[in-house]
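Structure in, sequence out. Go:
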């Protein structure tokens, strides 16, 4: 499943088919919130291996999406590449859903304010 509007780049790594499949699998869970077929959606996924370290969290993943003018971006590190991808996917999902819930909360509060305002005039 190739997505033209999502760019995947690697630094000090090789992007093999298993890694592409794993990234696509993780992108499917994000598709519930972001429609990748929408031409206004674009994104970058960058995978890094820190060659200056010998152990610890040497893999880093950066994900950034732009949807209708709103930017979402996260960074995550891990002991292996799959751990870093999983963590970054969880972080980006949290950012997207937090924004969605905040927007819905603002609409509800605005509606409640209008309702109380109208109640004052109906008496």
């Amino acid at each position: 499943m190739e997505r033209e509007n999502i760019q995947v780049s690697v630094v000090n790594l090789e992007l093999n088919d298993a890694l592409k499949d794993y990234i696509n699998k993780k992108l499917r869970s994000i598709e519930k919130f972001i429609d990748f077929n929408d031409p206004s959606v674009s994104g970058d996924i960058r995978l890094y291996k820190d060659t200056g370290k010998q152990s610890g969290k040497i893999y880093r993943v950066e994900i950034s999406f732009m949807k209708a003018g709103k930017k979402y971006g996260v960074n995550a590190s891990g002991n292996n590449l799959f751990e870093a991808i999983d963590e970054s996917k969880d972080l980006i999902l949290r950012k997207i859903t937090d924004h969605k819930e905040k927007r819905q909360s603002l609409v509800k509060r605005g509606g409640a304010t209008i309702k109380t305002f109208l109640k004052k005039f109906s008496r």
